[in-house]
Amino acid sequence: MAQQTELRGGGAPLRPTDSFSVLDNAVWAALNGPHAHLAERVGRAARYPDDVYAFAALADPGDPAAWADLHTLVGPGTTVRIKPVEDVPDGWEIVGGGVGVQLVDTALRAEPAPEAVRLGPDDVPEILDLVARTRPGPFLRRTILLGTYLGIRDRGRLIALAGERLRPPGWTEISAVCTDPAYRGRGLATRLVRAVAAGIRERGDTPFLHAAADNTNAIRLYESIGFTLRRRSPILLVRSPGTSRQGTVL
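Structure (tokenized):
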């Protein structure tokens, strides 16, 4: 069950509670907002292309019609990741999942990182290699289209990364935060998070981020630099009714 957490920030003033509601269904809000140009949609269901961000979303997870639209969108016997969803209708099958946490910026010091460089499509092979070795979360062949990604290089080699993913109206998620194991302990990830946040704030958005609930080290780091835990919610891997010859995972 999704759990709302009372915000406990001591830095930037908190906005009224209802201004955070867009984050309760952030994937849907992004696909109907700044990322609408990327959305594949049928009625009250939408998803990102499967090489951009492997998630789908429903306007209302409690609405059977939205699930019917999702079935039309993804097809029969298809496995898809979705959040925040707690239960599935008859015929759908939960085949995996976990629990995530959402944190919002309440006291982060955002500032540019002079050593950071903007990454683009030509850098994707290096990004995929770093992500494969550090496992910060999903980054796919065209995830770079979601927003600004910054990196730090050492003698030409990409050693740290952070960037933007979901963009619900008024908010931008910081994601893919990772550092080559040989370079950890130098504050590279923190500098990149601050730099990405500076760009987010410059256009008037507020940073937020997600982490696995059991990734206590990352959560502790984010809280120490000015993020506040907002909520916990399930992330499900579900299979649509019917049989697919391909069994696609989206």
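The longest helix spans residues 188-202. The longest strand covers residues 93-105.
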